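Annotated sample (chain length 455).
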Amino acid sequence: MAKAFMGVRLQRLREERGISQVALAKSLGISPSYLNQIEHNQRPLTVPVLLRIHSQLGLDPQVFSEDDESRLIAEVREVLADAGSESISTAELRSLAANMPAVARSILELHRRARSANDRADGLLGALGDQQRLPSFSMLGQHEEVRDYLNRRHNHVEELDEAAEMIFRDAALTIGDAAPRLAQRLRDKHGVRIVTSSGSDTGADKHRYDAATRTLVLADFLRPGQQAFQMSFQLALLEAGDVLDALLRDSAFTSDESRRLARMGLANYFAGALTMPYVAFLQSAEEVAYDIERLANRFGVGFEAVCHRLSTLQRPGMPGLPFFFVRVDRAGNVSKRHSASDFHFSRVGGTCPLWIVYEAFSQPERVLTQIAGMPDGRSYFWIARQVVSGPIGYGRPQKTFAVSLGCDLRHAHRLVYSRGLDLTEPDASTRIGLGCKVCERRNCAQRAFPSLLER
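Output written by the structure step:
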């Protein structure tokens, strides 16, 4: 950790706990004048002092994470540009993110609400013009709120990992073949009957639960690993409800719909943690150099499920690589995006068309790689592949997406996909951006819109 000037953040945390400056200085073993200098950014917050703060106040060191600060800077810069604000220097943004992160997040929340209001107005105009029934408008903002919650946690929910590991041991589940034991646990402990359906009982969903008859209906096209995932999802709602409720109480979501979406997202997290338990999955990932297809085969799940799980491995003291995960369709719609690091997905406009994830649609079944250089000078390593899900059979429509997993270039040598590539050659990288509307590159032949940053 570099020396960090985060005095206002420390002062706010101290005042929230009702601790005087003198009392905190005494508990940390430093002089009140030294603590006063830290709080006024005249001295940096060093690692030894940070560790003492963690010990005395029980604070997660991530509270002072510089990765969080970098992401916050990028997000605030973007929303201010979208709002038409005058150019604001990086130094000013860094000062805001480091010293007043709550204010910075409030700006992001106001922007999210403004976008939701604009979407509502656009939808209302369209509905009135077409004389059609008024649609529901608020889903976009609510999805963003849930994503922001997970990203603030670096896409890692330790409480659910621990609960899943406990059930994995108690149910004597087998890695790669968990479905039979899960079905037995649902039947014996909860009286849940499992049946399969050709689709009429599940519609477009992979499963449907009838609480009145205690019947879990699974789509007939699900493979055993996918069946295990859907059973684990239902088990989360039946056995980990208290954990889910506690997480939602502490989340400060602004609406019932956001809480509903978050509950479903957290139940899906639990399902991934139960079918791919943390320690065994991380050890396997390291053993095969993060070979996604080998991991999918070993744990009996799909390519996308493995990518998603890899983006959650941030347990303190036993972290995996800090990945970012994204799923898009052919039209460029981003339906999933999660980050365990400081990488920032754009909130404004689309993504960059030069990104390897879009090339995956033209080369099905192949895992593609890309070294991508960003406008801020940082470089990342990406892999991407097309995935298909849904019913099997003639005339039964399926869903097609491209999924991509990325990490900072300094970690790329640990991935099997980097073998044979020159990771040190600057000319080997593709110059991409976060999206045309917020990209600083002036000479890009693929630019679709003027940059908001050039106003």
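Annotation: Confidence is low (pLDDT under 50) at residues 125-140.
Annotation: The chain has four domains: 7-64, 65-128, 158-298, 321-454.
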